[in-house]
Design brief:
single chain, about 450 residues, mainly alpha, two-stranded antiparallel sheet
Length: about 450
């Protein structure tokens, strides 16, 4: 049998045609978003919406839920703000803000999982992934852009997205004083006085998290490129050490980021499993993206070192961690359902007993049922068409997962899924892929001096 020939100097060419296609996707996204805004405004539902419409009824939620009357709860959600309450942005603008925040959190996760995947491989001394490690490396370059978007968006839309940012909630004796949120004041505003204004502690955490993640990524990337030039074991052991430290940092920061950026939207509610839940959703979506990109490059005649065994392992990752995500989802749901405590159940009532319930069930079908059934057999995980189909389904499914985590808590009954959400997502897809492919094209696709590359070349399962 003839020996397989590998091209260790192959490079991905980010052609002008591919760039134009992404530009068209982004432009279409902008147009669709504008159409969505116009439709909302012309429908007469673009008037200002009360920031406290749902939140002012949170004190009533317990009695509404205890009565087991979802209709009463929905009626409570749609109450108009009381006279004198502050008003937020127009509905169309708030939907744009919320969609921007949701997409930024989702794509931040994809970039972060690129770094996490690399760190796992080095810490575990895994050789099978050496042939395609440039793919997750390129994903990490989105992190600084995600950080900038998060900072800017918080300044413009913080009060529309995060209810806890409203100062009147902390004025003891005031009309809108909220004792539950006030008890959490230190987590957001520390050090805070009686009338907190800017959430210094929360904002500092966001800056620190993005900075630390990006610093670790740059260090791992730097030593990865040094390894390509110089070879030897020194860069590899340096990356192993960095990866081990990063994994510890990631374990803490990713959970706190999930509390800060997603869970705090539903300020009265909390779950001790939420950090794990967000990680599971990020992790599966990131694995799906890596799989999709590897298959796409393979179909372009690149990544000659990748064979059906590597694809099989990627498929097993997506299959296995889709079940892991479902396990976390079910565990969180079961504990809350069994206890039936109104303060906890409200999170699921918001999503099951309103117009979000269709997306709620679609989320379970896309993220568990499809990948579970389609990836059951060994052969399905070795065929590119199945890998592409499942990877796309999983990415779409976990986008909806973050939609469910964020939109009901911010938009209440004013939320929806339409042109604005589709358009903003298309803009993010275009920008994210442009950054990833640009950096993927800067260096050779194969890490030819990786000390475990030979193991990857003979990977067989």
């Amino acid at each position: 049998m003839s020996e397989i020939q590998y091209n260790f100097d192959e490079k991905y060419i980010f052609s002008s045609t591919a760039k134009k296609r992404l530009a068209v996707v982004g432009l279409i996204g902008i147009i669709i978003t504008i159409i969505g805004i116009i439709l909302i405004v012309n429908s007469g539902s673009g008037q200002e919406t009360g920031e406290h419409a749902l939140r002012s009824t949170n004190t009533e939620a317990s009695s509404l839920l205890a009565s087991s009357d979802p209709g009463a709860f929905v009626a409570g959600m749609s109450e108009e703000p009381k006279e004198g309450e502050s008003h937020g942005s127009p509905i169309w603008l708030k939907r744009v803000y919320v969609s921007l925040w949701q997409n930024n959190i989702f794509f931040t996760g994809l970039a972060l999982i690129g770094v996490f995947f690399l760190a796992i491989q080095y810490a575990a001394q895994a050789g099978w992934s050496a042939g395609f490690k440039r793919v997750p490396e390129a994903m990490g370059y989105w992190l600084p852009i995600a950080g900038i978007i998060a900072v800017v968006l918080f300044f413009f839309a913080g009060k529309d997205i995060f209810h806890w940012t409203h100062t009147e909630l902390y004025i003891i004796g005031g009309e809108h004083f909220d004792p539950i949120i006030n008890a959490k004041k230190g987590f957001f505003f520390w050090p805070a006085d009686e009338h907190p204004n800017f959430p210094v502690f929360w904002f500092a955490r966001m800056i620190i998290f993005f900075s630390v993640w990006y610093w670790f990524f740059l260090q791992i990337r730097k030593w990865s490129l040094i390894e390509d030039i110089e070879g030897g074991s020194t860069p590899y052991f340096k990356m192993r050490s960095l990866s081990a430290i990063f994994l510890v940092v990631f374990a803490v920061t990713s959970s706190v980021a999930a509390w800060d950026w997603v869970m705090s939207i539903d300020t009265h509610w909390f779950s001790s499993m939420f950090g794990w839940y967000v990680f599971a959703s990020w992790w599966v979506a990131g694995l799906a993206l890596i799989t999709l990109m590897v298959v796409d490059l393979k179909e372009k005649g690149l990544l000659s070192v990748v064979n059906a065994n590597h694809l099989h392992d990627l498929g097993k990752f997506v299959f296995g961690f889709s079940i892991f995500w479902m396990y976390i989802w079910f565990s969180q749901f079961l504990l809350i359902y069994y206890a039936n405590i109104p303060e906890e159940s409200i999170y699921f009532i918001e999503r099951i007993s309103t117009h979000y319930k269709t997306v709620y069930y679609i989320n379970l079908i896309l993220n568990f049922l499809f990948p579970f059934l389609l990836f059951m057999t060994r052969e399905s995980k070795r065929h590119r068409i199945f890998l592409k189909i499942v990877a796309i389904i999983v990415l779409v499914g976990h986008w909806f997962d973050f939609y469910l985590m964020i939109t009901p808590g911010t938009m209440q009954l004013d939320g929806g899924f339409g042109f604005i959400e589709i358009g903003v997502t298309m803009i993010f897809i275009a920008m994210f892929l442009y950054v990833v492919f640009t950096n993927l094209a800067k260096v050779p696709l194969i890490a030819k001096n990786h000390p475990l590359l030979e193991e990857s070349l003979h990977h067989d399962i």
